[in-house]
């Protein structure tokens, strides 16, 4: 499939969402998409990658989430702790990155962070953390704008993914160029799998623009990646690209790279940015501090919060995650990523009909309107664009429609005709304490000297733990298999088909990969968003 064909397909999907096709047209369109995917499927069969493999410690995770809550919480915590300990082994790999960041900034260049999906959100989070670090600093005007982040689809994708956008390497290059990446700038690319076309496109483009070699951070072994995807092999074997391999093994929830892979990527890049102008031993010391902190902290305080939030959803109620610009980016990341991982309805846009509201929504009570809320979230004006290939999916107007300002406290209960509980999560900067409050449940967590970057990492793994266990209690995965994954790009189409294949073989049913793909495209846009594609396909083949 050519690049033009791919863009045509992406446009077709966007248009198809706005048109009513009769059954025959829909069937023909689905068949065309299936044929196009099958023509490139070999480059997206990622089942051999460790990040896509089941974790041996979580085979009973769905059962434990329902029947043994302390065990479920502790298991995920132990896996996360292992990530930080693994990073200790990788510290020598970060020395050159810290030096190159320092040299770039000291010579007047800018640092660009690039990713898509979960790694795109970590990139935006790191820029926000950087901007907060230098608020009020004597060099704030010189430093705050020297870190530039972008993700596939622009800032809109932070809150609502732009389907299939990450499958196009030319989009990565185009976004990089439109942000005016220049000769003296440094690109740090993050891709949890090591194979994302968008990120690879941006990385290879940087070679032709800047004199500084780009960095490519990823979480799978080189030998496996080179056998799996030609595009990955091309990057790994390119001596002009600086690679940092941060392999961490399987995710706690199979394929959910929003968890451990993103954690190690965010902390590795973040430490090099936070301590760019200090001795490397400061990085080593902060990493030791967070390891000690996670080891001694009892995460089981999450249990009553998990039970309470789960109960709210069971009763058909809704929830506001109430916070502000200090922690908002990490809270938004976790709540946003629940949608594609567990096939939940995403945050609804206030400019659209509210047929399918999300279970929860971010809320900034101190922000007066949508524009100010976005500015408070990012600590800058949002970055959007309007390309004809993706209609209005990435536009400023669409972004502003996702309103999480104080206005939402009146708007949402009114159009849903339902009350909302408030889950408040705040940081007391004076005492360096995280505060959690939900329906009378209150917990304060002292961060014991951890810096602001590490505070976000602690919050990230806590929220990943909380949301994953809640979804297990709601039946949104089986064992540790992501059976409610949404097939919104080529990688996820393959993942859904692999999971169906696994479940069918457990029943003694063998179906060809081609049949699975065709069935996936036939039904994936026909079933409700909050219905399991994987389980629906299993039923179709198990008639």
Describe this protein's structure.
This protein is an alpha/beta fold and 543 residues long. Helices cover 50% and strands 10% of the residues. It is built from 21 helices and 10 strands. 49% of the residues are buried. It starts with a helix and ends with a helix. The protein folds into 3 domains: 98 residues, no CATH class; 223 residues, Glucose-6-phosphate isomerase like protein, domain 1 (Rossmann fold, 3-Layer(aba) Sandwich); 159 residues. The N terminus is likely disordered. The strands form 2 sheets. It has a 5-stranded parallel beta sheet, sandwiched between helices. A 5-stranded mixed beta sheet has the order 7-6-8-9-10.
Write the layout of secondary structure elements.
Elements: H1 3-16, H2 23-40, H3 61-67, H4 69-106, E1 111-115, H5 118-133, H6 140-143, E2 147-151, H7 169-178, E3 186-191, H8 197-207, E4 215-218, H9 222-228, H10 230-236, E5 242-245, H11 260-274, H12 281-296, H13 302-314, E6 318-323, H14 328-342, E7 360-364, H15 370-378, H16 396-401, H17 408-416, E8 420-428, E9 433-438, E10 441-446, H18 452-473, H19 490-506, H20 513-523, H21 533-541
Parallel strand pairs: 1-2, 1-3, 3-4, 4-5, 6-7, 6-8
Antiparallel strand pairs: 8-9, 9-10
Helix pairs in contact: 2-20, 3-4, 3-18, 4-11, 4-12, 4-18, 5-11, 5-14, 7-8, 9-10, 11-18, 13-18, 14-18, 19-20, 19-21
Class by alpha and beta content:
alpha/beta
CATH class assignment of the largest domain: Alpha Beta
Q: How many domain regions?
A: 3
Cα separation of the termini: 34 Å
> Taking all residues together, what is the mean pLDDT?
93
Question: CATH H level of the largest domain: which superfamily?
Answer: Glucose-6-phosphate isomerase like protein, domain 1
Largest sheet at a glance?
5 strands, parallel
Q: The CATH topology of the largest domain, please?
A: Rossmann fold
């Amino acid at each position: 499939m050519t690049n033009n064909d791919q863009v045509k397909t992406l446009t077709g999907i966007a248009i198809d969402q706005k048109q009513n096709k009769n059954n025959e047209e829909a069937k023909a369109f689905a068949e065309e998409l299936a044929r196009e995917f099958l023509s490139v499927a070999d480059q997206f069969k990622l089942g051999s990658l460790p990040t896509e493999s089941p974790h041996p410690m979580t085979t009973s995770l769905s059962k434990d989430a329902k029947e043994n809550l302390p065990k479920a919480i502790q298991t995920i915590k132990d896996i996360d702790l292992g990530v930080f300990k693994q990073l200790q082994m990788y510290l020598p790999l970060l020395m050159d990155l810290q030096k190159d960041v320092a040299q770039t900034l000291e010579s007047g260049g800018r640092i660009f962070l690039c990713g898509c999906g979960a790694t795109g959100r970590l990139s935006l989070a790191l820029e926000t953390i950087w901007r907060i670090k230098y608020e009020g600093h004597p060099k704030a005007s010189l430093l705050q704008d020297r870190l530039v982040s972008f993700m596939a689809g622009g800032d809109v994708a932070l809150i609502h993914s732009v389907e299939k956008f990450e499958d196009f390497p030319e989009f990565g290059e185009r976004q990089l160029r439109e942000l005016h990446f220049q000769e003296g700038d440094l690109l740090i690319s993050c891709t949890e799998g090591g194979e994302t076309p968008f990120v690879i496109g941006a990385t290879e483009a940087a070679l032709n623009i800047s004199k500084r070699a780009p960095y490519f951070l990823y979480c799978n072994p080189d030998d496996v990646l080179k056998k799996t995807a030609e595009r990955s092999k091309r990057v790994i074997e390119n001596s002009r690209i600086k690679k940092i391999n941060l392999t961490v093994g399987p995710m706690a929830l199979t394929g959910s790279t929003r968890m451990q892979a993103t954690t190690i990527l965010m902390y590795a890049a973040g430490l090099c940015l936070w301590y760019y102008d200090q001795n490397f031993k400061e990085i080593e010391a902060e990493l030791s501090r967070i390891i000690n902190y996670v080891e001694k902290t009892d995460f089981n305080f999450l249990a009553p919060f998990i039970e309470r939030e789960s109960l709210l959803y069971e009763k058909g109620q809704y929830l506001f995650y109430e916070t502000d610009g200090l922690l908002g980016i990490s809270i938004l990341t976790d709540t946003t990523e629940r949608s594609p991982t567990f096939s939940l309805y995403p945050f609804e846009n206030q400019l659209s009909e509210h047929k399918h509201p999300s279970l929860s929504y971010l809320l900034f009570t101190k922000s007066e309107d949508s524009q100010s809320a976005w500015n408070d979230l990012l600590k800058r004006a949002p970055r959007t664009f309007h390309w004809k290939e993706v209609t209005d999916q990435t536009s400023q107007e669409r972004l502003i429609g996702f309103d999480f300002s104080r206005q939402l406290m009146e708007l949402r209960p009114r159009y849903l005709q339902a009350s909302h509980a408030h889950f408040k999560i705040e940081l007391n900067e004076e005492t360096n304490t995280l505060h959690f409050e939900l329906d009378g449940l209150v917990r304060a967590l002292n961060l014991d000297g951890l810096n602001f970057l590490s505070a976000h990492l602690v919050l990230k793994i806590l929220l990943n733990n909380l949301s994953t266990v809640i979804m297990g209690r709601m039946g949104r995965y089986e064992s540790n298999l992501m059976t409610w994954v949404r097939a919104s790009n080529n990688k996820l189409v393959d993942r859904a088909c692999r999971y169906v294949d696994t479940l069918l073989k457990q029943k003694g049913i063998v179906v060809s990969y081609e049949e699975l793909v065709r069935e996936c495209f036939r039904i994936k846009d026909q079933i409700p968003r909050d219905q399991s594609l994987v389980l629906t396909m299993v039923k179709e083949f198990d008639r």
